[in-house]
Structure prediction request, 315 residues.
Amino acid sequence: MHFEVTILGCGAATPTLKHAPTSQAINWQGKWILLDCGEGLQTNLRKFKIPLQKIELICISHLHGDHVLGLIGLLGSMNLFGRKRLLKIAGPSAIVEFVTRSLELTHTHIRFPIEFIDCNGLGDEAVITWGENTVRAFPVKHRIPAYGFNFLHCPRIHRLRKDSIDAQGLQRSEILKLKAGEDVVRDNGEILRVQDHCEPLKPAIRYVYSGDTEPCDAVRTAAKHADVLYHESTFLHELSATAKSTGHSTAQQAAILGKEAGVYLLILGHLSSRYRDENRVLNEAQGHHPNAYLANEGMRIRIFPGEKPSVHYLE
Ligand SMILES: [Zn+2]
Prediction:
């Protein structure tokens, strides 16, 4: 099991020579997911060798241009390169109209099916679930409807110890029960306990993406004990009033939230071009969360169960 995030863009508002607007690619054991589609996304998809046609799901946090203006171009390219397989797009309700109208007006005739997932209507339901993996959306506090996303790998299926299968002469029904985490009581009163006959469950993996937001409880809750939290840090704390009025967070707020949630690794994103020296953003955050990093294009974060997440940089 492995989980890998590649940062394709981490700048705020507008493309600059330093940063592309927000976008990330996730490789979750071979399943490819995009998080936001800022302008210029396709260049970095190519640069960092993300397999375009293998992308199964695109999660859009909100409809501000710097998070969504790369989406239509991407759909056009997928079409041009002969995509046939289904693409799922999750986001705020208006994503359906944005995509369908943009495709119509640009005469982009898509020949592959798109399934929209309206995050507003999901309630407790996940965006997608497969095996022991779940993607959930949660509403955050921005100027327009906006969501964060929570990626959770939570092992539930126990692996039997081989010596137990041989020694106990386990029946099929008993094996199924133990695998599901239930103790078995035999007719003769003998109890077969999960902890005696199964390997310990591997630890969970959790990655949380804040999207654009003021500091809010929804992120704090989702990020509880996360391996990695990617939190926007658009401003330094000296501009906290501006952050509040525009629905954004300061580096200090992101770091305090990460610390309170018990996050192991904090990645600071949505970096504003107003700070030529981004180390000011990093230093402010590290005063509250020592394990904070600045996002950068080509940054790759790897998470394996039971190990500390690691950060690498692609050329
Ligand atoms: Zn925004």
In short: The chain has a mean pLDDT of 95.
